[in-house]
Amino acid sequence: TGTSWDDAFIELQSAIDLSCSCSNEDVWVAGGTYRPTNAVDIDRDNMLELREKTFSIDDHSVKLYGGFYRGAERIEQRSQYNQTILTGDLGNGSDTAYHVVHISKMTIDEGMVIDGFTIRDGRANGISGNQEGAGILLNALSIDKPIIRNNRFINNHASVSGGAISGSAQGASLSLSNCMFLSNFAGASGGAIYNSGQSVNSEILSCSFHNNRASNGGAYHGSNAFPSDISLSIDNSIFWGNVATDQGNELWLDGGDNATVHHSIFSLDGIFTNGSSDMDTSVMFLHQDPMFISTAVGSEDLRLQAGSPAINSGLNQAIASTTDLDGKTRLIDDAVDMGAYEYAFATCGNVQNVFLHPSVFAQDVSSRTDELIYASSRMSNTLTAFDAYRGVELGPNFQIDQSTIFNVEVGNLICD
User: Fold this and answer.
1) Consecutive H or E run containing 89
2) Which of 119, 222, 283, 343 shows its CA 20 to 30 Å from the CA of 368?
3) Contact 199, 191 (CB under 8 A)
4) CB contact set of 355 (below 8 Å; sequence gap of 6+)
5) Among candidate residues 355, 352, 351, the one with its CA nearest the CA of residue 409
């Protein structure tokens, strides 16, 4: 019935369908990998193809939350380390879905939420509507800002537009925050995001884009034939190392788009505007390497290194969430950082970036819970871990082998 973890749905689509029929029901999804099971005739050829399987959402009130450990009782008991992966890989060794997620409704009111997922490996290389939006295809007449936050979009490819996300309908507005877009591709426009349509008002807050590729708009392409009809605001975000073979390595705006970019990092000459498009970059707009931990292909890490110009350079008024994509506190110093990840550090000799993984648990629990790690499974290796910012809560499935020793200090850093 999906009313408890003991009676959870096996297929995610079953939970989505029930939520669609029961207004304002949240769907909590445990960590793991989930494959699409529901075929939708997106290209309208009156045939259901295997590759048209997708996670289909057709109701505006659906709220999907990933990252849960089984047994969790509160939405705060989630972890971005316990990834909930929605994959386009259909599991038969050869086929991939055209769209990992498909949102279809005549009207999508503000209130839809997709929060806490890794959306990856969609391949929109079919015909008609199956050529765009490999990660998420917003295929609705009017979409009023679905809330897409705390998600990772990785390795989604579209033959035409919007490798990770395509929204190209009347009112196809997007609200994106705390998201990472890595290694997505589109053959024509918007390697990560393609956004087009009439009366569009989109926002990108605290997101990181890297190694997304397209002919135009390596990371983002906003297009509209209606002058001054698309509005885009970008705050506290990083666009770096994206590639367009034609125009706009990071961002391409045309056809009357109006964009405001504040407190963000873009590569030099990474923005291309066409026609009547207007760009305001008057406040804290940087052309400096953000100093990601790693940009090596296959081992990318878009967290910030010490000394990054993105640290303490964001706009506090544009903070979208109290935590970042890792679940760390968003505002550690006086100013928020740019990008999806807040730089948190511990100072003790030469030790930096010491974090307690949420699957590492403590023998004794501090009463301090400025932040929360939810521990719910077995740990059997001797390990000492330190973390300067988090509290620890032991879940109902927590176990310790008798020979195992765990130490943790919450609020203080200890160095050996």
Assistant:
1) none
2) 343
3) no
4) 326, 328, 344, 387
5) 355
By the 8 A CB rule, do 102 and 54 touch?
yes
The residue whose two tokens read 């390497």 is 289
- For residue 195, the SS3 value is strand
Which of 356, 228, 229, 230 has its CA nearest to residue 220?
230
**Under 8 Å between Cβ of 216 and 246:** yes
Residue 48 has pLDDT above 60, yes or no: yes
d(CA 13, CA 88): 14
Task: In whole angstroms, give the CA distance from residue 236 to residue 206.
Answer: 5
Residues 302 and 207: their CA atoms lie apart, in Å, by 10
Report residue 4 as tokens: 């408890």
* Tens digit of each residue's pLDDT (9 = 90 or more) over 255-275: 666 788 889 999 877 887 765
Tokens 């970008």: give the residue. Answer: 234
CA 203/CA 326 separation, integer angstroms? 21
The residue whose two tokens read 């906003």 is 222
Residue in 263, 174, 256, 157 with CA at minimum distance from that of residue 214: 157
Q: How far apart are CA 389 and CA 321, in angstroms?
A: 17
CA distances from 390 to 76, 129, 355, 411 (A): 13, 45, 9, 7
**Residue 292 in this model has a pLDDT that exceeds 90:** yes
